[in-house]
Structures are given as structure tokens and as C-alpha cells.
Amino acid sequence: TTRRVGSDLTPRERDVLALGWSPAKVRAAVSAGRLARPHRGVLTTPDWAAPTARSALLVVAPTAAISHESAALEHGIWLPRTPGPLHHVTVRGAADRVEHGVRVHGSRLPEDFVEDRGGARITTIARTAMDCARGRSLPDTLIVLDSAARLLAQRTLDVDASALRAPEVRE
């Protein structure tokens, strides 16, 4: 079995073991390059081996949402610096921690601040901007908030423009 995250189906190692693969067979497939482990407990083909924030969702709770700098990259929010190697997710009620390349942020994240984007849970643009701006210098905060405001304004303009288009007339 697999769990859908975005547009790809990514099997968890425990699911492959439940299908009858032995741990030795999984290790041999990884060693031979037929399978890859982008995160602990997640298997994929070598061409999809680069860890992503979407694959990071598989190693934490089902209620996890891509957040912070990882969500900013998904939304296209400008960041003052290139993010580090960790993938950020927020899990309601979890303890803050770093494990297997994933930075888990514990929070009382209301569902109103989470949306589905291509099959993955992700914090909204507004919540992402606040998460990324928190604790930064004023210039860095302005970069993040200005970018998020531009994205939200563009989204509003796109919706307004589609409403203004004349309906097609059928003869």
C-alpha cells in the first residue's frame, strides 16, 4: 500500500514489509540502487530519491502540514536566504524536534490555516508568511511579508478578472 502525497504514490517501508518483503530484501534493494530511502521509513525509486517536504510528511503524523520555509518554497514566497537542508512541517500538539532531516514544529495549528495543495497539506500563504517572519530582522521580515502580500493580491486579482469575463454566448 502507499500513501498519496502530491502527485506521486510513495510507499512507506512498513507497508512494503506488510506485503511480504523481508527487511533483508528491502536492504538489498536499497544497496543495489533499485530502491532509495529519502527519509527514514520511506521508500521510493532512485529517480525520486531527493528528500522533499512532501516525502517528509510521510515520516510524521497524518495531520502534519508543510510549513515555514518549506511551505514558502511551495507557495513561491521570497525568502531572504536559501533555506537549510531541513524540511519543515507543523503538527498540532507535537513536541518541537528534528529527526531524519525533518524539523517538526509543534503548534496549535487551526485547520483554517491549512490547505490542500496537490494532495499535500500545507499552511496557507498568510500563516506561512507569519511563520517565516517570526524572529527575523525587520528587513528580512519585510521581504517575506511583501512577497506574501503580492501573492495574495495576485490571487485576488485573478479571481476578480475571471468574474469580469463576459460569459460565452451560444447560438
Describe this structure in words.
With 171 residues, this protein is an alpha+beta fold. The chain has six helices and eight strands. The strands form three sheets. Strands 3-4-6-5 form a four-stranded mixed beta sheet. Strands 1-2 form a two-stranded antiparallel sheet. A two-stranded antiparallel sheet has the order 7-8. β1 (3-5) and β2 (8-10) form a beta hairpin. α4 (68-75) crosses α5 (125-133) and α5 (125-133) packs antiparallel against α6 (138-164). The longest helix has 27 residues, at 138-164. It starts with a strand and ends in a 7-residue tail after the last helix. Mean pLDDT is 81; it is low at 1-8.
- Helix amount: 25-40%
Strand order of the largest sheet: 3-4-6-5
If helices are DSSP runs of H or I spanning 4 or more residues, what is the number of helices? 6
Q: Estimate the strand proportion.
A: 15-25%
Number of strands: 8
What integer is the average pLDDT? 81
Question: How would you characterize the largest beta sheet?
Answer: 4 strands, mixed
Q: Which structural class is indicated by helix and strand composition?
A: alpha+beta
Radius of gyration: 19 Å
Shape: globular
The helix/strand order is EEHHHEHEEEEEHH
> Ends: how far apart?
51 Å
Low-confidence stretches: 1-8
